[in-house]
User: What shape does this take?
Amino acid sequence: MATLSRTPGSQAAPGGGVSLPPTPEKIQQKFDLSISLTLSTWPALTLAVQNFWGGPLSSEKRDWFAGAVSDLFSSQPESTIDDEYLEEFLLQVMMDEFEVNVEDESGAEIASKILGLRKLTAQGDFGMVDEMLTRWRERQARGEERVTFQSRQGEEDDDEDEEDDDSDEDMEEDDDVEMDEALPIVKAPKEKVVPKVDEEGFTEVVGKKKR
Assistant: This one.
């Protein structure tokens, strides 16, 4: 007597039968969802969106970011996309679109997670994606915690007033941004601020707009 066995992507149907494996469209849908959910857990990206470092449409850029990752997998052989390649892609987008230089290892962790989810969803295993979605909904219900950062600009301005000899060094550090717990994420400066000395010997700071 012939028996039926479950394939990796099959699910038990009502009545004890076996349902058909998920369609390619369903697999792609779940993979796209997994990318969005994974990016939503990246503190560096959350920080950039909350502070509009990608401009007033930073939230929309995050959605575009997820789509760009999905397109990467469909535009070239997946055998060419490894952890290092995907990490470099993620970090480049962070720099180009949000002007954030991520200096910790979080980019590698996000890349590895996306690749792992790619393998699972391709096999029709959506359990991890569904769990991530449940946790995301729970965070939304509680009120998503904000990722905060502390600027060193105020402290450096005080040091500059007290020690004129260190003004050049302070100016170079004005744009440094560090997250709580010393997470090494640096907001890339758009313009270098340079000191200017007037005829009376006073130093003034000249940026994009002259004060």
About this structure: Residues 156 and 162 are 10 Å apart (CA to CA).
